[in-house]
Amino acid sequence: MSLNRRLLKLFTRPQRHTLPCVFSATILTFIMMTTLLGLSDQAATKVLPTMISAAMSSIALNEVSLVLERRKRDVAVLLAVGIQKHLVGFMLAARAVLYSSLSCLLGAVSCYILLHLTMLGSAPTINLLLTLSILAVIAPSLVAGAYGALYSFRIDVTGVLRH
Amino acid sequence: MSDSTIVSVEGLQKSFRNGQVTISLFNGLSFNVREGDFVAVTGSSGTGKTTLMNIIAGLDMPGKGSVKVFGKELSSLGSRHLAAMRAHSMGLLFQTFGLVNDLTVKENIELTLYLSGKKKAVRERYVHELLQFFGIQDKAQLTPPSLSFGEAKKVGMARALASEPEILLLDEPTGNLDPPSVNVLLPILRGLRHIYGKTIIMTTNSLRAATIANRQVHLERPTIRTA
């Protein structure tokens, strides 16, 4: 197993708070998709995804900041032994990609099943689901990755290792 | 500075502000460490032993003075170069071990081997050798929280040695250990120099541990000024 894979395994391990975060993001994805399909106003169709992406980014940021708080010591150790700082940012972005994708997948599947079975609206096309999913994954991942990179550049390694 | 000088410290000072109080450490400390030296840094608590190790490792910056490692002035190196230097040329043992709790003993030791880019077979063999050298081969699959204090120190030292560094920086390797564990660790420290031929800088409060070094650097008490 390479260093990157080992770090990825370490940083993507789910923690106690991960499940509620994934659940919240799934609900948001579901709301975004079901609501968008029923909207005809052009302005609303642009504003709603932006708002939901921002909300999902906040959830991802919250999730990653909790991970970093719990893994502060591990991050300090890794940086102290010579792991490059940007790698920590990449690993946290990868974590956000993983859990945002999971939320999107669950949200999109739920939306598709609901609309297809109840006939309440037109069933979403695969293309629309894909576009919305990408939107809901990219924004949270960028935010989480940037936060992780910034954190690893600002962490007081010696202060953390002293205690 | 001669060719065999690995660490050169000149006129080192470091100050900390704590409210109205300024604490100045090192008071212009100067010393050189040559290849194969075993230097014990001694001094009572609060004299800056750990801070000195952090400065030499490039984890902290000197306030005044110059610190050169392998001929390079540390304050002129960026964080990327410092990280690369720690990964390839330095082995660090932290006072609080610095082990990753979610990784096993074997994985913790392997961590620095990944950084040196060794192949899997070489990594496996080297980790096995280190586990045997420190007598912790039966703990390979355990995680750090299930280790005793002494065992955790040994794992920390094995990880420090794993990347085959040119210099070992050991922060209180015998600190807080019971006498039997110290009796086990001291011959290991001697062995690191004599068997592996390592250059070692070690901080210690223990006179007994300091005697196994071939040189001692004593840190004076810091000066405290109130504004």
Overview of the structural elements:
The complex is a heterodimer of chains A (163) and B (227). Chain A has helices at residues 3-12, 18-38, 42-70, 72-81, 85-118, 126-154, 157-162. With 163 residues, chain A is mostly helical. In chain A, helix 2 packs across helix 5 (85-118) and helix 3 runs parallel beside helix 6. Chain B is α/β, with parallel strands linked by helices and 227 residues long. Chain B has a domain at 35-60 and 89-218: Rossmann fold (3-Layer(aba) Sandwich), CATH 3.40.50. Helices cover 34% and strands 28% of the residues of chain B. The radius of gyration of chain B is 18 Å and the shape is globular. The model of chain B has no long low-confidence stretch (mean pLDDT 89). Classes of the chains: A mainly alpha (163), B alpha/beta (227). Chain A binds chain B through residues 2-3, 6, 10, 13, 73-74, 76-85, 153, 157-158, 161-163, and chain B through 50-51, 54, 57, 59-60, 79-80, 83-88, 90, 92, 94-96, 98-103, 107, 110-112, 114-115, 159.
